Amino acid sequence: MEVKWELPHLGSYKLNTVSVKQSTGPGGIGGLIRIHLGHRIIGFSEHTPHTNPVRAKLLAIRRGLQIAVNHSLIPIEINFDSIETIHMLTNRNINMLYDNIVVECRCLMLKLKITKVTQVFREQNRAVDKLAKEGTKVAVFDEPNILLVPPMYARRKVETDILGTMYTRLTNNIPSIFQGRDVTQLNRNGHHAAVDAPIHYPS
């Protein structure tokens, strides 16, 4: 199956985030905010302390949302590759283990007027993955490395995203069973079609 990074809608920004977490030890998070032509507005790379993979993903999303709020980047779309995290952010029920950070993310999303989040494959997040991996090497806790210019180690991936480079994602030969917004779907051309999850904010 062929997939690629999808441009945001005209007049909109897009935030992509990724976390890299080893089975033991600290990890890294990264994110990119880009405009509709794919050109980079701002990015970040950050070291994370000992934590679990779910919290690491939430930390990446929170940091990206904080940066978007601080720079008034509205309207903005958000994409990441974790279905579990999408459920936490879009459903009314919250896992109590992550209550504080999920509520904080929702408040930031409300400020940014975000009405949905979209799940993408990790292959569509290659540029951001580079930033997250770099974060594993920088042991400065709670202080992101804000990037206004694409660093050399990620520049090529950013450029290939702008060009619409396709990547091959290996899948099983048997048909997949799609359940609502829990997984991505394919369009008629066999390409990836992201599934959008509407957000249920507390009334």
UniProtKB/TrEMBL annotation:
Domain of life: Eukaryota
Pfam family, one: RVT_3
Residue ranges occupied by any RNase H type-1 domain in the UniProt entry: 18-134
Listed GO MF terms: nucleic acid binding; RNA-DNA hybrid ribonuclease activity
PANTHER family xref list: OS05G0353850 PROTEIN (PTHR47723), REVERSE TRANSCRIPTASE-LIKE PROTEIN (PTHR47723:SF23)
Name of the protein: RNase H type-1 domain-containing protein
